[in-house]
Design goal:
heterodimer, A: 261 residues, mainly alpha, 2 strands
Chain lengths: 261, 197
Amino acid sequence: MHDSSENITLYIKSESRIKRLHPFNKLAYILLTGMLVYLGPAALEIGLVFIFINMLLAVYGGVAAPVLKTVCCTILPLAVFMLPIHGFLYPDNKTVLYSWHMISLYREGLIFACTVLVQLTALLTASLLFVFTTHPADFLTALTESGCSPVLAYLIGSPLLLLPAMRDRVGVIQAAQRARGMDCEGSLWKRIQAVKPLLSPFVLGTLVEIEQRAISLEVRGFNSCRRVSSWHQVEDSLGQQICRWTMLVCCAGIIVYHFLS
Amino acid sequence: MGFSDQIKKDFSTFTMVLIAVAIVLNIAVGQLVSLLKLPVFLDSIGTVLVAVLAGPWAGGLTGLLTNLIWGMITSPVAAAFSPVAMVIGLSAGYCARYGLFKNIWLVILSGVIITIFTAIVAVPIRLYMFGGITGSGADFLTAYMMALGKDLFGSVVVTVFTSNLLDKIVTAALVWGIVKTLPARTTSRFMSSPQRS
């Protein structure tokens, strides 16, 4: 799975301490960030602190540039919609900041929009740290080692391997149907008519293959109940385990705090 | 018995491979259709297909994993909507189990039912996580409803419902058509596949 999945997931090859951390620790960190930012007190301040910490971690992990790029691509379009819509139309708007003819910009709406944007950015940067620094194979090995059924690892891993081949097939079908005169750019009705010749050979072709795939899996002992040993090792230490559990306990604490207050 | 053992017991190898292929179908068909610039996404066709063939829980798992994997290959934002994808699979599965995938009118009704359940889960996520705005064309509708004096909740409900209704009905109808054309040796593998007339 080393070559093909590296191109398809967002994982970036790098050597850092963050890359070598156990995948579950990074997942627990995402959970903790989400809980603190959405359920904790003072969302705006905590969110800003987390964005700062996550960016430092990204620099340390050598993935700062792609993290910044993805955050801009995701958050900027959101901000373009969110700031004006809530600034002008948020239902609890009272304090006018700026007024021009009939239109006025309100303080409450802008604060609400900024808080949501900061919350999202904090959670997004934490998730990106996981996605950019965790090799899919590390994650799948960690899942299997923790006692999850290999079935789950198969269900996450095999689509990543299948996807490039399927994309090629989509291209082949498109080219073939175009050669037969299918119209992809005409009127709406023409494009609706194009759905069937594009979809049916693709969907039916893949479904018919399933049987072969299932048989080849069973022949290779997929249903065996024995624990399989893996070539791939994921580092884990007592310190990391304690860290992980502390983060989970904190999450539980935040939930309790949220419902009590 | 642990959760993963339970999965193993419930799902045969055949179902397992179907789920893996359906996840790829969701992603690839979504791309294929975006090329045609139609007002539908059709990115849950695999989920509904598994739900109809192999039951609600297999469908739910397909939806959940699709969005988690989507989060790994495009942007983590997709992972935030994984509960929505799961509910699409669950509701489609129960529709099929109670015999709603028999003729075109019942299939359209299933599309409406799936949309209702989608909205129940999607609205809180859109509202509390994204403040009602997700940076897509549908935001204009939200803004319009808010300008008409609706509250944020009402505006988001209207937006989610209208932007999903056509998509889910078309998805359900396409899946119904696909299941009808599948060879009997494939459908007979599944317990909950609808009776062929």
